[in-house]
Fold this protein.
Amino acid sequence: MLSKKLEEAINAQINVEYWSAFLYLSMSADFSAKGLPGFANWMEIQFKEEQDHAMKFLNYMLSRGAHPELRPLAKLQKTWKTPLEAYKDSLAHEQVVTKNINDLYALATEEKDYATQSMLKWFIDEQVEEEESVQAIIDTLSLIGDNGYGVYQLDKELQARKYTPIATEE
């Protein structure tokens, strides 16, 4: 059974994960509208992964006898000036998510909830990967600068990314 503090904190994180999903969907739509299908594909996969993350939390709550509470999402940005701006926003957002996950882990430690600590370990590792992959694209975009051919090549590379669902139930 989850403590009330952890139940509230995980419910808040479910909201963050769904907001993250919609942020990436918004970025995907913006890239599609700008004729960048590879960038759009990369963000659409992020959208799906964030939905998986939310479901992993939701299913964990249910397995612990807690009641998930879905909340309204805050308004999202619709457009970005450049791919680099979008990926910098993505990295900043992932850093906030990392802080949230770390705070959840600290709360689970404080509450002596070892099962939740164990579940959160997956998310801690996932956030390292999330930040690393976004940073790699930022680094490449920074090298490319305004070179249209470079953006075209990166767009083609990002189009090859495939979605791999995660296990959302323990």
Helices lie at 4-33, 37-63, 83-110, 114-144, 148-159. The first helix runs from residue 4 to 33. The radius of gyration is 17 Å.
